[in-house]
Specification:
Layout lengths: L1 H30 L2 H5 L7 H20 L2 H25 L4 H26 L5 H14 L8 H19 L3 H5 L11 H6 L3
Helix pairs in contact: 1-3, 1-4, 3-4, 3-5, 3-7, 4-5, 5-6, 6-7
C-alpha cells in the first residue's frame, strides 16, 4: 500500500516537473524575442536576459498561485526548473563548481527582490496606477535605473500588462498541464511613438 502511494507521488511530481518545464520554456522563448532588446532597450547581456526571464516567469508564478494548492506546487516546480537551468547554464559557460553555488544564490536573491517588486506593482488597480507601478519596477530592475525614454518605458509596462491580462484569461487546467499562451511582444518603438 505504501509503495503504491510513493509511486503515485513520484509520478505526480514527474508530471508536474514536465509541465513546469513547458511553462518555463514558453517564458524563456518569449524573453528572447529580439524586439524586447532592440526596441525595448533591454541590455542584451547575461543580466538583461536574466531580467527578462524573471519578468516573464513572475507573472506565470503569480497566476499559478491563484490556482489553489496544485498551482502553488506548480509555481514551486517552475521556480525549481528555472534555477536548475540557471545552474546548468553557468556550468556550460565554464563557471567553476565552487562559484556556481554562490552565483545561483545571488541570482535567487535577485529573483526574490524582483518578484516582490513586480508582485507589489501587479497588486495595484488595473489601468494608469498599475502601469505606473510596473514602469517604476521595470526602471529599477530591468533598466537598472537607466531607463529608455519614458514613452518606451510606458510601452514596456503596457506589454507587461498584456501578459497579466492574457494569463488571467487562461484556465487553471491548461496552466497546470503546462500549456500557456503568452501575447506577442508588440513593436515597442512604434508603441512608444504612438504614445501608448
Amino acid at each position: 500500500m505504501a509503495v503504491g502511494r510513493i509511486w503515485r507521488h513520484l509520478k505526480g511530481r514527474r508530471r508536474r516537473r514536465e509541465a513546469a518545464r513547458r511553462l518555463y520554456t514558453a517564458a524563456v522563448r518569449q524573453a528572447r524575442v529580439p524586439i524586447l532588446y532592440t526596441e525595448g532597450g533591454v541590455a542584451d547581456t547575461l543580466d538583461g536576459r536574466f531580467d527578462l526571464i524573471v519578468l516573464h516567469v513572475v507573472p506565470l508564478m503569480r497566476r499559478l498561485r491563484q490556482c489553489g494548492e496544485p498551482g502553488r506546487q506548480m509555481s514551486q516546480a517552475l521556480f525549481d526548473v528555472m534555477f536548475d537551468d540557471m545552474d546548468q547554464s553557468l556550468r556550460e559557460m565554464g563557471v567553476g563548481d565552487l562559484r556556481v553555488g554562490k552565483r545561483v544564490k545571488q541570482m535567487a536573491r535577485a529573483f526574490y527582490g524582483r518578484a516582490k517588486a513586480y508582485d507589489d506593482a501587479f497588486d495595484q488597480a488595473p489601468g494608469t496606477e498599475r502601469r505606473s507601478a510596473i514602469a517604476e519596477a521595470l526602471e529599477r530592475n530591468v533598466y537598472n535605473n537607466a531607463p529608455p525614454p519614458d514613452a518606451r518605458l510606458q510601452a514596456m509596462a503596457h506589454y507587461v500588462e498584456t501578459i497579466l491580462d492574457a494569463l488571467d484569461g487562461q484556465s487553471a487546467e491548461a496552466l497546470l498541464g503546462g500549456a500557456v499562451e503568452l501575447p506577442p511582444a508588440p513593436p515597442l518603438a512604434t508603441a512608444a511613438e504612438g504614445g501608448q
